[in-house]
Each structure stands twice: as C-alpha cells, then as structure tokens.
C-alpha cells in the first residue's frame, strides 16, 4: 500500500474497540456546517455517471449495483461500502475479516444443520443466503476470500426488492475486480506469526484500445493465533478479459476458482445452566467454560474441511444512443463443502455433571450447482418536467444441491453408556468422550468412515421481474420506488435407502410460492451535499430459503407454509462534509417487524403465527478529516425481541400440552445491543503512515432461552506502513494488540467460537 498526503491510506480489519466518542462527535459536524454555510437556495449535486465512483480512498459515491438508481447520498437506505483501501489497511484476508469493520453484523458459528462457512447475521436476522456477486446470488455454503474483490457493499434492512428471497436484515454484494484501461502489476508477499504466509498478484494488461485482461492469484497458509491446532491453506485464481472497452457493446468474461483445506475450530462449550431438578446446585452461569484459550476438543486425525468454488460469468453490456443501457449476465457456479468437525456438545449436561464433553461429529458432503441469467435496462428520461432514473429487469435461476453426511464404524456414541452421556472419558469410551481440562487432540481415534446412503437433493427454480425508479420532482425532493415479483419453486427428494438393515421410504416435499416486495423512500435535500429520508421496505423468506444447504431446510412440516413477511421503517440522513465532500457521515433510526414467523402453533403444528421485532439506531463515518487523516467506522444499537414465539409442549410426547412460549419477550440470539468499530490512519510523514482500529461488541446470547451468552469485548489493532520508493512499500499489522481472550461466534447454543489471539504480519507490497 502506498500512502499519500492526498488520500492517506487505511487498512481496516475486523478489530474491536470500545465506542469511540470521536466517531460520534463527528456526526454532529454536518449539522453545524449546514447552519453556517448552507446556501439560501439548495443546489443540485453534479450527476455521477461512473459506477463505483470514489470521492476518497474510503468513500464511494455510487453503488456498483445498477439496481440503485441514485447516488448513495440520495439512496433512502443504509448502505456501507468497504473499499479496497479499507480492506488493505486493516489486513483483512477473508470476507468475515472485512465485515467485522461494519457494526450490526454478527458472525455466526456452524452447528448441526448450519454448515461451516460464512454464517452472517445482519440486524439480528440470519443472512447466510444473502450474499451476491456483482448483484447475482452466490449459492452454496462457502468461506469467501477477498483477493479478487474491488469492494464490499453492505445493504441493511429488507433486501427482497433488490435480491428476491432474503432475510429481513439485509444483504452483502461483492464487487469483483475487472480489467482496466491501463497496465499495472500489483503484488504482495506477507509473513507473520502463527506461521502466516500469504501472497497475491494482480496483473492488468491492455491488449489494444478495445481489449484488456486481468489476472488475480492468491496463496494463503496460516494457523490461528492462540489456537495451536487450528490451521488452513487455500489458493485461488481469477482471470478476466474485457472486449469492446471503447465501443457501445462491452463483453466481460471472468472465471473464479478457490479451494481450501483446513482443520476447523470447535470452540469452547458453555457452562450448561440447570434451572430445575436435582442438579440445580451444579447450575452453570451460561458463559463459556473457563479454560485456556488453546483448549481444543477436536481430533486432529479425524477432523477436516475441504472446499472448492468455481464460478464462470459472461457479462454483456450495450449502450444505446440517449443513455439507455442493456445488460445481460449469465453465470454458472459450483461449490463443494466437505467436512468432519468436532462439536464439544454440552446438551447432555456432561460439562457440569462430569467435567467431560461428548465429541459430537458434525459432518457434511455437499455440492451446489447454480445457473443464473439476469437481463436489465437502465436509463433516464424527463416527462412533464420530472426526471426519472430507472432500471428494470428479469432474472431466472436454478440451484441444485446434493447433500449427505458421513457414517462411522463402530460409531460416535460412548460404548459404556450406549448414548452421548460421558461419566468418564478416554480409551474406554473410544475417545468419543474427553475431559474439559487438557483434552488431547491427538487421541488415537481410529474408525472407518463412509458416505451415508441418506442423500437429500434440493432443486430450486426462481423467476423474477423488477423495476426501480428515482423520481426527481425538484433538486430538493426525490422519490425512490421499486417493486419486485418472484416465482419461487423448490423441491426436496430423498431416495429410498437402507441403513443398518432398516429401509427408509423415499420422501418428497415441495413449495410453490409467489410473492411481491416493495421499496419506497422520500428524500429531501436541504443542500447539495446532504439528504434526509424516510423509507419503507419489505422482505419475504419462503420455506427452504437456503436452497438445501443451510439451517432453513425444506421439510414436509413447512412445505405448505407461506413465506415469512417482514417490513422495515427507516428515518435517516446522509451528509458529505468538509471541502470537496471528503467526509461522509450518516445516521438512521429504524424498526423492522416479522409478523408471520414460523413457530409451533397451539395444536403442535408449524404455522406462520409468530412475531419478531427489531428497532435500532445506526451511525456511520468514512473519508478524510484532513488530507493526511482518514477514518472509517460506525455504531449500531439493536433492540431485537421475540414478541411471539408461539407455543411449547409442557406435557409429554404421548399427551402433549401446548402453552404460550416462556421465551416471549426475550432478546434475539446473536444480536449485541451495542456494537461499534473505528479504523483510522494518519500520514505522519511523506511515505510513513500509522493506523489503528478498535471493535466493540456487547454481550451476545447464544440461544432464544437467553440462558447462554458470551460476554462483550473490545479488540484493538494497529498498523504502520513505510514507502521505500514509488514501487515498494512495507506494512506491519498487529491484530488483537492486547491479546484479548474473547468469543466472536455464538450462534450455536452448545459452544462459543474463540477469537484469534495476538498476531503480527509484515507485508511487502509491489506496484509497477
């Protein structure tokens, strides 16, 4: 990274900090400036016509997603853009690393029905399936890399009007690197503690006036600081070629390949709370068990995770006279996720009763193929003195997931009890039980494994049509409206299979749903560099939303249910302040409601009768305070409540008695009430930059009972860079500067994921 006084660079990572008052104070700046300098007549902002146009290294004025028909300043929605400079300065090397710079996003842990991979919660709602690449849904469970990304766009609030089926929390759009009209070579080589090694190459070449090619390559190998056994390696390649760069018709062909091999983490179990019964005196407090950070309950010679992702894209764009743009994108993707990993299961009370854990083997053999085509028309016109900036399109997609699991012989239960109860541990239990203190990850667990004959095949087809329009009545008043209609069809088929001499009949389930979603917002511009908006948006989450590769699976019990419908109300403001609008600040107040959440009804069936509510506040800041000083950060307050969790069986299986859920009014799991982050860097001398970051996350519950939780934490990071010459620079990143022991993943009610300890990396960057 080459720092400069013009755009002092910042590398922002996923690090924690207590809420920094400077970030909050800066949000008052635009109001004060407006009071002193606002013109008598608001001025119209100059039109931005370049997708993803930057105003500084930390700012983007326009989204790369062509469904946004106005600059981000005038878009009535909370959108955070993580630029390549923020990614670089913070030392992020994965999508989850980069997203920790955005408050309001929680990283979840994998569990039984929830695959290891990017498991995101936005504003308290699971957004595992709401990741898009250049506007098209990216299917399949993956752990995504950042080596081929130009920027990351986080859209908060209901996302169905833009992306179809989705959660109520929002979505993530990954913007890919594409060929440019200039020759350059960028490369980096990094070494660090915890056996960190990483190298990347980014080469762009202009073949002629109309053709350019670009190649991105990455190799990565590292352990996790403070977690001695946890390690992984991965490599990726992403070539692309553009034709017709200076003509009306442009064609971009791209391919992405990434594969990984790792030993996945198991985390640490909770102190299991006993609320009734003879063992209540042994009640745990619900926090993770107090053991050394490097405690690992997995098995080195059993556990693994291997993934592979391949994506090919054909992107055709034609610009007609008058500014009308036609675009057609065809994409094929395939992702494989194959793993065995040990979950330290506390569900049988082993941790508190016996000081042991059962080594539950979570397994998956999954492959997802997807094919999508998107066609759109984008343009603008003036009618009756009113300007319209619009886009409309059609999208079709097909996703096919084949999923199974592993079987073990002789099995993973404790042979002494025939169950998962572990009064003892060690060889007599065939190492399926181990101790809470000093478990041995090298226990000689020797079994044979095979793929289960029980296989699920899930086929999901969608057809969608949408239109968006930004209506400019005057330079001060704009109306943003949009509607999307989706036809969603998904089927689950389980063929007949025989296991342990027992034959299970074939099973079939299907869901056919049509739903429409809306996005509307009224924008008032008190000045050319500001906006105040009110907006309303909806979202639909149909049964089987994850297309067969996540927690929200399609089953016979839910196949006839309607999609869960959510709506969101938001009041917000955005300002570009200081000379040249080099600093962006924003604030939003919002409330979301899910009125037909799927829960157990009074008769014991699953129905759409539940209700969830979320209200909160978000603040954001990005850009340059001075030409040497850059900042990127924000604060989020979330108050999520399970307003109506349906009914629970307080009787027996034979004679069920359903009463109102005792969890009504509880806090959303995986939802910190307060979270904040700030990354800042300063060019202290020509060619010398220092930076630092802090990330703060309050207490997070791991279950809807609100009996298990991880305590809040603050994490600090630091960076320094030195420009040797115009071609070579060095950058030192220190993550978790104080070596804080904290838990950063708690979506499983059985264990909490351990955050990495202190680590240091030195990276040499080359630019030619």
UniProtKB/TrEMBL annotation:
Nucleotidyltransferase in keyword set: no
**Swiss-Prot/TrEMBL GO biological process terms:** siderophore transport
Query: Could you tell me which residue ranges the TonB-dependent receptor-like beta-barrel domain spans?
Result: 268-737
What does the UniProt entry say about where the protein is found?
A: Cell outer membrane
Residues of the signal sequence? 1-35
Q: Specify where it is mainly localized.
A: membrane
Q: What NCBIfam families does this protein map onto?
A: TonB-siderophor (TIGR01783)
As for membrane topology, the entry says: Multi-pass membrane protein
The protein's name is TonB-dependent siderophore receptor
Q: Which residue ranges does the record assign to the TonB-dependent receptor plug domain?
A: 72-170
- Source superkingdom: Bacteria
